[in-house]
Amino acid sequence: MGCAGSMPAKGDGNVKNIRKPKPWKHPQQITKSQLVQMREEFWDTAPHYGGRKEIWDALRAAAEADLTLAQAIVDSAGVIVQNADLTICYDERGAKYELPKYVLSEPTNLIQDS
């Protein structure tokens, strides 16, 4: 159990709890299938712009998970979260990973597929 005054270890103390991105609006209305296609294109091409594939895979898994699981994923992968909404992260080697909001949440102006 530990001492009453002990605190859980958090590595270097720079651990940020992740949160959902703020609501956002896409420049034009898009359907769910268009959003899914945009996400697939991003994840397919993202590793080609730098960084390590295993970090991109961890970020994708975190982006598609609920917040508790996403936090566990980024923590176990050694991802350094710059912005709590996961839009900017770094790996332990200092490589930067930028995630667009459309891979993290749905826009407020999403329309139903016809």
From TrEMBL:
InterPro entries given in the database record: DC-UbP/UBTD2_N, DC-UbP/UBTD2_N_sf, UBTD1/2
This one is known as Ubiquitin domain-containing protein 1-like
Pfam families from the UniProt entry? UBD
Q: Which N-terminal residues, if any, form the signal peptide?
A: none
Limits of the DC-UbP/UBTD2 N-terminal domain? 16-113
- Map out region (Disordered) in residue numbers: 1-30
Its ancestry begins with:
Eukaryota, Viridiplantae, Streptophyta, Embryophyta, Tracheophyta
